[in-house]
């Protein structure tokens, strides 16, 4: 097989997406894609910034039919967008009417009237066509581009759906709190539903009440694609939702204790995806059942010069795993944290992820993160921490930490802040954290 269909097993009137004003059947989707493809400028690449998940998919599909690559920025900051556009010459933006980007040619997407007939043959995309370029989050350094073929995107979606027990024609809908411009968001909230013929909710609910309302708008088996940050908020606020089929979480480690709370609260299994931008989704686990990850079908791990790599037919070359892992004889593995996550303080080694987990276990701590400030050769390395804990004092949090971690890792200083500068997927770019440290050193208030 050298190509794959644009969408999976839909009949013309099957609902493909649920927009704010109602359903979008598969027939309308193909019509919208055709209309938009005819109106796109002749360019090699496009920044798809459309806020609706459905409109994003229409733009993504139209661009592929024109042989254009969709650029997926890790941030909506104007300087980031201009840098990406500058690196990809002759690119342009797809935007909503009220959201142009200064300095970049923008094409405003407007709703088309009328619906064309169902095509005699579903549009197909070559498997080796570069469909998207995803950028790493920048949480550990400079964001890097990663090319994704249509073959890779469809293979990951099929493997993920198979692992989760999804079946063609199943009455199921995907509601996601993650942005569709992010790699996990693209794979799980866009590709997963269209490959398996599911309904895709077009919105992006962020707060617990919004998540509850979005889940109430769809029918059938409800699949919530989310992050540990959103799960924690829903559990903490006690928001009640209609019965869920399952929860799929990624973008940050999910503790077993939070997964157990979420399963009790939502009465649904919580599954996790392990992956990274360079390889996409790699493995899955049900978090409450243990620490071991099972590679998706078609994915295997191989050791090369003491480093583990991900290998799959859709990857042109093996991709190094950025985390420290232990692999068993069956190919399952345990993750011990990122290589860049390991730090040495006064001869003691620790994982920042482990410290963050212990911080979040403290009663009253809603969010928090340890990090190393900018290094200065003349100073002893000291960890810092930013914590969101309304009603708590620095002394109370430090006292709770002393009971959980080695004193050498106690953060100095520990900053109480109203919120952390997390991006759309819940990650914390290192530069944003360093800005906290710089403002603290200057005695300035901490903006987010």
Description:
This protein has 448 residues and is of the alpha/beta class. It folds into 2 domains: 3-336, Rossmann fold; 346-441, GMP Synthetase, Chain A, domain 3 (2-Layer Sandwich). It is 28% helix and 27% strand. It is built from 11 helices and 27 strands. It has a 9-stranded mixed sheet with strand order 3-2-12-11-13-14-15-16-17, with helices on both faces. The chain has a 6-stranded mixed sheet with strand order 7-6-4-5-9-10, sandwiched between helices. Strands 18-19-20 form a 3-stranded antiparallel sheet, with no helix packed on it. Strand 26, helix 10 (394-402) and strand 27 form a beta-alpha-beta unit. Helix 1 crosses helix 2, helix 4 (150-163) crosses helix 5 and helix 7 (228-237) packs across helix 8. The longest helix has 14 residues, at 26-39. 41% of the residues are buried.
User: Kindly, what is the distance between the CA atoms of the first and last residues, rounded to a whole number of angstroms?
Assistant: 49 Å
The backbone outline, from C-alpha atoms, is globular
For the record, the CATH architecture of the largest domain stands as: 3-Layer(aba) Sandwich
Structural class: alpha/beta
Proportion of residues in β-strands = 25-35%
CATH topology of the largest domain: Rossmann fold
CATH superfamily of the largest domain: ANL, N-terminal domain
Which CATH class of the largest domain is shown?
A: Alpha Beta
Rg result: 22 Å
